[in-house]
Automatic annotation (TrEMBL):
This is Aldehyde dehydrogenase domain-containing protein. It comes from the Eukaryota. It holds the Pfam family Aldedh. InterPro entries: Ald_DH/histidinol_DH (IPR016161), Ald_DH_N (IPR016162), Aldehyde_DH_dom (IPR015590). Transmembrane segments: none annotated. SUPFAM superfamilies: ALDH-like. Residues 53-141 form the Aldehyde dehydrogenase domain. It comes from Medioppia subpectinata. GO terms for molecular function: oxidoreductase activity. PANTHER family: ALDEHYDE DEHYDROGENASE-RELATED.
Amino acid sequence: ATTFDEFTKLVVTKSRGGSGGPKLVFTPIQLNVNKRDITFANQLFINNEFVDASDTSRVLRTINPNDESVICSVQSATKGDVDRAVKAANDAFESGEWPLMNARDRGKLMFRLADLMEQHKEELATIESIDSGAVYTLAIKTHIGLTLDLKI
């Protein structure tokens, strides 16, 4: 398994309360929407870990446009946080596993990510529907479905 594949599995598994491998530490937001339990982080994800913003007093309230209820509060990145995230992403891209892989292995990882999205499309559509106010069927068929159907 490559670093990116392990990362993808780790994020999906840990964000859903799975076991094995290093533990991603965060306090999950847990909601029951459309008779479905969903769990997600509200922190910044920088350099393979969930972290609070440098200024923890800066938060953004995510509003459900359907009923104007607060879904949750999320960390608001400062300029310094963005700089750290860009540097970590650049370091990973320039000197991590990705540039050392051949195109076939990169393609396998991208297809694996698409497979994971397919496996969790109902949960993704539920999150998208409360975040954007879209009807669930529109979110699953269009917002998520068209993304999965995209061929590059």
